[in-house]
Design goal:
The protein is an alpha/beta fold. The protein is built from seven helices and nine strands, in the order βαβββααβαββαβαβα. The chain is globular and about 50 Å long.
Length: about 220
Amino acid sequence: MTKKTALILGATGVVGTQLINVLSTNKNYETIHLLSRREFDFKDPICELHIVNFDNLEQYVDLFYVNDVFICLGTTIKKAKTKEAFRKVDYDYVIEAGKLAKVVNVDNLLVISAMGADVKSKFFYSRVKGEMEETLKQLKLNSLHIFRPSILLGDRSELRIGEKVTGTLSSFFKFLLIGPLRPYRAIRAKTVATAMSIAAQSSSTGNHVYHSNEIEKLTSGR
């Protein structure tokens, strides 16, 4: 069987770092390209690191000639400092990557969004995520997989006090978050990464959206 190639944008994030580990142990892949703004340590021999300027992503179109593109880009208003800077990372960079994936006709594009993503949301964060999703859908990619996790549990390069507290509370009251509230349960970054890897092996086409409970179902038995 011919092995696949993959590209990860946002490889230093909480999901991206887990995704490197998941994909590098997946026998379906022979090469994994990592796009990053800075150097970082990784030990996987099938991974190749590329330092890029995301403001000029079109210059790296050759790196998009892969089977699967995984987009794990994301920041916070606090870290970005302004709404404009936040939107650049969570919308502009993601859409530009989606356009390049369309140009080279990738098999699958898999992207991290967020619970509550909605173009009509009153909250800027959720609205930007919703706009990102809708724009990607309009590209009519071969197969688009959108993941909407709740609070992510896992090690981060920067401390997010709000998420840490909310995640701890969500985990503590996990037994209460059942039925229609199940998508609000905190979820481990490794679980999301594993679900992305599984979805990439599917032959289904079109657009697919996964909430936290559906992400967990994908990984059940793993």
